[in-house]
């Protein structure tokens, strides 16, 4: 039904004007978000969306609208996440979406900057006594429709000569529920999401995530194809959050750094010198506001996945490149 | 020729002009929609056309009636979905009809308890959304049954667990063809007997127990063939191997839940059609047939049913087409029907317009066929004026 509605929108909407102008005119950002994955995006007890993906969107809203709260979140099922962007239903999707060639080139969307390097894994009940994904021959695996996980699973089975029965559900909740009731032996999705969804099971300690990572899942926010200015803004806000961590700028000290730092890199980033904001069609303080709103990349990560959280996902390859990870900000100048 | 005069009459001209204008506007709007869609798709670099159907799908499908692998094309995957939808629709219609007749007859039963129970059944199922019924049947199927290692075994070779119902799979051996032919012969014989009995009745008024003789023929002829060929059927039993049972015939819980939900739900509506059909027959008709000394069974078959069917069939046609359309809710409980598989194809290719057009085309074709058959049936039971 949603898809029908979307394709109808696609039929009647005319040529795009600039997304930035649209957002500034309507006064809020429309952002596609998950159906509820702890750590990435889930509503808290007051109905406020919280999470890593949410903070990325809030940073963009802070940069563009000077207010991280001016976002209308739209919860999207996996199947809808691309089409919602390409049809213009949302300005931005920040929703654990894997960057692939086909999506980038053929589905009317552009990816911005990788916010999370992930990989697909398997969760299994400990009571089955299986410790490796290569030993799941004959198993039934629950998976969500329209995801790369669904395709990777089929690839993995074929490549390893395993006979796996995939049970495909429209929604993540239904798939996880089928796993929880024992309809499936395994549940598969990105490892980070497994860690997250495991905390929602009745007895998380009864389930283990097997060591094999069977795919590369670079997760990035996406915007629709064809509006380069808007794509640049989202891309560089995320670059700015990573650069902030590289330079020790935090939500708490960003204003102080702007005034006191002698580092020309920091001065350019924070609009003290140069005019990076104008290149994007924004004002000089764009990145200051983003960092004030959500902190730097490391702060965001720790807030949602760090050791003090229930999820406790080690940073691994998502560390800064200076610490042996893959997160690397492009030069802001 | 009368036509020119008719055309030049003033009011006819106005009507024709108006109609032409309306058609023109519709075509203009459709054209605009098409051009605009194409322009938007191009502007957004989204592929269009049906070329994607020949690409390798890469997606897994559980519950396939035909051999399928992820190496097959999107087109074939969609075809598997159509087969699954047809399978559910066909079986669903048959089972819902049987249960519906039962419910309908129970509703008009003189037995207070039976008619009350049927009424409660109808009221409960008719007034609950089908999606909830499906969630309910699916969670029952999963929650009530054990995991494979603790399977229930009601009979030797039959297993029940939350992965499905496992039955022995029949494997034909040499000579099985003869048994098949014997079954066919039995059916033909039964038809011939029925035809002969009808003629005999019409010409001489004599009644022979054609039904009993027919059934006997249908049972005994294959039974003799079975006995002569020495029972040419082997059974393959399901065996627990690793995570799951392998071998045997398996009915998946997604299918059972969908089927149960659809049948229970639709039977409530069909039951009401049957009840209204039976009640539409004038009591005078029933009294007359009693007065003529017809037994109750014959009254039902020869007097009530032919007249009731005139009311039952048109309403039931609607319920059949609804059942076909409702089967698309399968997507909610993981049964890979056409909509579920098409949805995945949209997710992978983003060619929503093409896939939606295919969905609509298939549902329309199925339902038109259902309607044609039902209209033919309806024409046959209508009162023929003399």
What can you tell me about this protein's structure?
The complex is a heterodimer of chains A (333) and B (386). By secondary structure, chain A is α/β, with parallel strands linked by helices. Chain A folds into two domains: 2-117 and 219-323, 3-Layer(aba) Sandwich (D-Maltodextrin-Binding Protein, domain 2), CATH 3.40.190; 120-215, Periplasmic binding protein-like II (D-Maltodextrin-Binding Protein, domain 2), CATH 3.40.190.10. Helix content of chain A is 38%, strand content 16%. Chain A is built from 14 helices and 14 strands. Chain A has helices at 2-12, 19-26, 52-65, 81-86, 101-106, 148-159, 172-180, 191-198, 228-246, 254-260, 264-269, 276-279, 286-294, 297-305, and strands at residues 29-33, 42-43, 49-50, 71-75, 92-93, 109-111, 116-118, 120-125, 140-144, 165-169, 186-190, 207-209, 217-219, 222-224. In chain A, the strands form five sheets. Chain A has a five-stranded mixed sheet with strand order 10-9-11-8-12, sandwiched between helices. A three-stranded parallel sheet of chain A has the order 4-1-5. Chain A has a two-stranded antiparallel sheet with strand order 2-3. In chain A, helix 3 (52-65) packs across helix 9, helix 3 (52-65) runs antiparallel to helix 13 and helix 9 crosses helix 13 (286-294). The longest helix of chain A has 19 residues, at 228-246. Chain A is globular, with a radius of gyration of 20 Å. Mean pLDDT of chain A is 90; it is low at 11-15. Chain B is mainly alpha-helical and 386 residues long. Chain B has a domain at 43-148 and 251-386: MetI-like (MetI-like fold, Orthogonal Bundle), CATH 1.10.3720.10. Chain B is 68% helix and 6% strand. Chain B has twelve helices and seven strands. In chain B, the strands form three sheets. Chain B has a three-stranded antiparallel sheet with strand order 1-2-7. A two-stranded antiparallel sheet of chain B has the order 3-4. The longest helix of chain B has 34 residues, at 10-43. Chain B is globular. Classes of the chains: A alpha/beta (333), B mainly alpha (386). Chains A and B meet through helix 1, helix 4, helix 5, helix 6 and strand 10 of A and helix 2, helix 5, helix 11 and helix 12 of B.
């Amino acid at each position: 039904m949603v898809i029908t509605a979307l394709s109808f929108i696609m039929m009647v909407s005319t040529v795009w004007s600039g997304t930035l102008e649209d957002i500034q005119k309507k006064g809020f950002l429309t952002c596609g978000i998950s159906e509820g994955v702890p750590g990435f995006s889930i509503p808290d007890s007051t109905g406020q969306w919280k999470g890593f993906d949410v903070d990325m969107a809030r940073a963009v809203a802070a940069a563009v609208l000077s207010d991280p709260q001016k976002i209308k979140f739209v919860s999207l099922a996996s199947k809808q996440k691309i089409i919602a962007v390409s049809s213009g239903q949302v300005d931005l999707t920040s929703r654990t979406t894997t960057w692939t060639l086909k999506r980038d080139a053929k589905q009317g969307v552009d990816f911005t900057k990788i916010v999370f390097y992930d990989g697909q894994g398997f969760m299994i009940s400990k009571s089955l006594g299986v410790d490796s994904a290569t030993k799941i021959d004959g198993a039934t695996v629950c998976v969500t429709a329209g995801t790369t996980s669904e395709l990777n699973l089929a690839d993995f089975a074929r490549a390893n000569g395993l006979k796996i029965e995939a049970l495909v559900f429209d929604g993540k909740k239904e798939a996880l529920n089928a796993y929880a009731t024992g309809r499936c032996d395994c549940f598969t999705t990105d490892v980070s999401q497994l860690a997250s969804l495991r905390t929602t099971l009745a007895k998380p300690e009864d389930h283990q995530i097997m060591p094999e990572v069977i795919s590369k899942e670079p997760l990035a926010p996406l915007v629709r194809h064809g509006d380069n200015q808007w794509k640049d803004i989202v891309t560089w806000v995320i670059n700015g959050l990573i650069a902030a961590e590289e330079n020790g700028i935090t939500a708490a000290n960003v204003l102080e750094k702007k005034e006191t730092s002698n580092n020309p890199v920091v001065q350019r980033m924070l609009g003290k010198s140069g005019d990076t904001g104008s290149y994007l069609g924004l004002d000089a303080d764009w990145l200051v506001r983003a960092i004030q709103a959500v902190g730097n990349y490391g702060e965001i990560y720790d807030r949602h996945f760090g050791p003090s959280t229930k999820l406790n996902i080690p940073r691994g390859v998502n560390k800064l490149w200076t610490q042996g990870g893959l997160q690397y900000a492009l030069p802001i100048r | 020729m009368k036509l020119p005069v008719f055309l030049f009459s003033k009011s006819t001209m106005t009507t024709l002009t108006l109609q032409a204008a309306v058609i023109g506007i519709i075509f203009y709007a459709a054209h605009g929609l098409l051009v605009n869609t194409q322009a938007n798709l191009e502007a957004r670099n989204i592929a269009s056309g049906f070329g994607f159907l020949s690409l390798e799908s890469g997606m897994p499908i559980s519950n396939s009636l035909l051999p399928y692998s992820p190496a097959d094309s999107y087109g074939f995957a969609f075809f598997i979905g159509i087969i699954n939808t047809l399978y559910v629709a066909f079986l669903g219609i048959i089972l819902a009809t049987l249960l519906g007749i039962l419910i309908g007859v129970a509703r008009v039963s003189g037995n207070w308890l039976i008619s009350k129970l049927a009424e409660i059944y109808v009221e409960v199922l008719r007034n609950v959304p089908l999606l909830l019924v499906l969630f309910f049947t699916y969670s029952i199927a999963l929650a009530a049954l054990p995991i494979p290692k603790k399977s229930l075994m009601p009979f030797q070779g039959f297993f029940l667990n939350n992965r499905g119902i496992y039955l022995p799979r029949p494997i034909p051996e040499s000579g099985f063809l003869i048994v098949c032919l014997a079954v066919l012969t039995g059916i033909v014989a039964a038809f011939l007997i029925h035809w002969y009995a009808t003629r005999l009745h019409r010409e001489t008024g004599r009644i022979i127990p054609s039904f009993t003789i027919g059934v006997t023929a249908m049972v005994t002829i294959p039974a003799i063939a079975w006995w002569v060929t020495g029972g040419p059927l082997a059974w393959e039993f399901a065996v627990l191997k690793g995570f799951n049972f392998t071998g045997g015939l398996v009915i998946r819980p997604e299918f059972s839940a969908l089927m149960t939900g659809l049948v229970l739900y639709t039977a409530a509506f069909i039951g009401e059609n049957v009840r209204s059909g039976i009640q539409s027959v004038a009591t005078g008709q029933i009294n007359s047939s009693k007065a003529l000394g017809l037994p109750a069974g014959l009254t039902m078959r020869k007097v009530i049913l032919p007249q009731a069917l005139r009311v039952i069939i048109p309403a039931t046609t609607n319920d059949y087409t609804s059942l076909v359309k409702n089967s698309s809710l399968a997507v909610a409980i993981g049964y890979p029907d056409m909509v579920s598989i098409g949805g995945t194809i949209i997710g992978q290719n983003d060619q929503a317009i093409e896939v939606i057009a295919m969905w609509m085309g298939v549902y329309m074709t199925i339902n038109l066929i259902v309607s044609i058959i039902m209209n033919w049936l309806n024409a046959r039971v209508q009162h023929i004026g003399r």
